[in-house]
TrEMBL record:
The keyword Transport does not apply. The lineage of its organism: Bacteria, Bacillati, Bacillota, Clostridia, Thermoanaerobacterales. This is 3-isopropylmalate dehydratase small subunit. Residues 34-100 form the Aconitase A/isopropylmalate dehydratase small subunit swivel domain. SUPFAM superfamilies: LeuD/IlvD-like. It comes from Thermoanaerobacter kivui.
Length: 160
């Protein structure tokens, strides 16, 4: 996947990703309309299909709602690269088929607007703007299978 980097800092919790006042729906497109609005009112206007979210430490902390990764994915983000993820967000993202990678060096080496190429199969992250490359831990085989089917529900439907 390749896209423009949209970058934010540390400790972005699920209330910032999708404010609780919008949790009366599970419609991905409705959630996407309000994604990150308490952090960046222009997020929904600047994100384009395939863009890559680059964030700091502890991304997705807070409540365990899966609305947060759903809102991000529906907004057009193809992948998230973070210094670290809250564990429940990490699992929720995998469950809905949103690729996420942890790579501290990549986050420090990517700036807003850089064009980034990510290969989750081998953990390769290339900053095409700066000509640099980083290596994240690739997904284990069972997560690759879940991602291949677009999330856990589709995976289970196919395998059961």
């Amino acid at each position: 996947m390749q896209g423009k980097a949209i970058k934010y800092g540390d400790n972005i919790d699920t209330d910032v990703i999708i404010p609780a006042r919008y949790l009366n729906t599970s419609d991905p497109q409705e959630l996407a309309q309000h994604c990150m609005e308490d952090l960046d009112k222009e997020f929904k206007n600047k994100v384009q299909e395939g863009d890559i979210l680059v964030v700091g430490e502890n991304f997705g902390s807070g409540s365990s709602r899966e609305h947060a990764p759903i809102a991000i994915k529906a907004s057009g983000i193809s992948c998230i690269i973070a210094k670290s993820f809250a564990r429940i967000f990490y699992r929720n993202a995998i469950n809905i088929g949103l690729p996420i990678l942890e790579c501290r060096e990549a986050v420090e080496g990517i700036e807003e607007g850089d064009i980034v190429l990510v290969d989750t199969d081998n953990g390769s992250i290339k900053n095409l703007t700066k000509g640099t490359e980083f290596k994240a831990q690739p997904f284990p085989d069972f997560i690759k299978e879940i991602m291949k089917y677009g999330g856990l529900i589709n995976y289970v439907r196919e395998k059961v």
